[in-house]
Amino acid sequence: MRRRVWNLVSAAPLVIAALLAGNSRTLAERAEQTQASSAEVKIDNFSFGPTTLTVAVGTTVTWTNRDDIPHTVVSDDKVFKSKVLDTDEKFSFTFTKLGTYPYFCSVHPKMTGKVVVQ
Ligand SMILES: [Cu+2]
To answer: Please, are residues 76 and 104 in contact by the beta-carbon 8 Å criterion?
Structure first.
């Protein structure tokens, strides 16, 4: 009987450590979600990279034109539309609804990409 009590007491630090570990993982996950609230697409060499970007609801996506040629970012469904972006200019849009958002460059319609909001 006395031995059983001692086992419980000696196990307590392990339980506390496990709880602390659980808490710190929760914090790490929260930090990850915070980081996921923005994402980047680079426009270079007549293409969007990544071509398909998957983000969480509420994410702000920023496109940056790294090409030496002007491009635009225009949603197929007219959900968003940038002005003509010169070299190093940016365009941002915040995705607040689930869905798949195909887009293209209106100057070069063969340039296409897609944002998937999960
Ligand atoms: Cu273009």
So the answer is: yes
